[in-house]
Hints:
InterPro entries: aa-tRNA-synth_II/BPL/LPL, Biotin_CoA_COase_ligase, BPL_LPL_catalytic. It comes from Leptospira stimsonii. One of its GO terms (cellular component) is cytoplasm. Its EC number is 6.3.4.15. This is Biotin--[acetyl-CoA-carboxylase] ligase. The protein is an alpha+beta fold. It has two domains: 11-199, BirA Bifunctional Protein, domain 2, CATH 3.30.930; 205-250, Roll (SH3 type barrels). Helices cover 22% and strands 35% of the residues. The protein is built from four helices and twelve strands; from the N terminus they run βαββαββββααβββββ. Strands 1-2-3-7-6-5-4 form a seven-stranded mixed sheet. Strands 11-10-9-8-12 form a five-stranded antiparallel sheet. α1 (20-24) links the parallel β1 (11-17) and β2 (34-40). α2 runs antiparallel to α3 (165-184) and α3 packs across α4. The chain is globular and about 55 Å long.
Amino acid sequence: MPNVFLQPEKGIFLNSVTSTNSLIKSEEFPHGTWIVAEEQTEGRGRRERKWEVLGEESLIFSGKIGLENFDGGPGLSLFIGTAVCKAILSIYPELARELKIKWPNDLYLGNKKVAGILIESEVIGSTVTLIIGIGVNLYGKKETIPSHLTDAGFLNTNPDRAGKKSEILEKLIPTLNEAILLWKDSEGRKKELILLNELLLWKGQSVSYTENGTPQTATLEGLGENGSLILKTPSGTRLDFIDSPDDFHSLN
């Protein structure tokens, strides 16, 4: 089977679903399809955490891509995150200094989480099916955020700059396809990792994480060649993570 990327004409718009990722896994939807929902009642994040989309305007998206002999890795979600950043910044260029990627799959504006990414895959023979789920809090008022979501925020709180979902979506489809192509190409991957290091949240800052139930501190140095997270401990030991450490947060 040849590679099948997201097709602009294969979009499906729905009012309410349980989960766009769960829905698009059905054989009813071929590779190249993407779904956008106005409401999602059982959204999921990584490690089966619940994902709540907030505000008056949000983007709830899942796309289905088919690839031959595709080698994923810890950096793939980062490349998808960069694609989402590119789409957003093409519409909101004024956010360029504040919009960052928290390793490995969240987007932050300042110190507030505004988007999450969930990538799932299925391998049948030599064909890999990628399900790319994206949730973005596009517009809302700060006072509407539930008290238990202390780090949640909105991409935009200005009503005069709201109503940009369709424009972001139009940019998102090609940037997602481009992200997969860059990941598959060794030279393209190297160049994109340079950009990712610039977008990386907390780079050069002190961070905390939990290891075997014990809090640890380190300095976030940057990304490895395959998108892994590089931390440096106070003793000078270099740590290389391919999955997010527990309770990973900034100390600044």
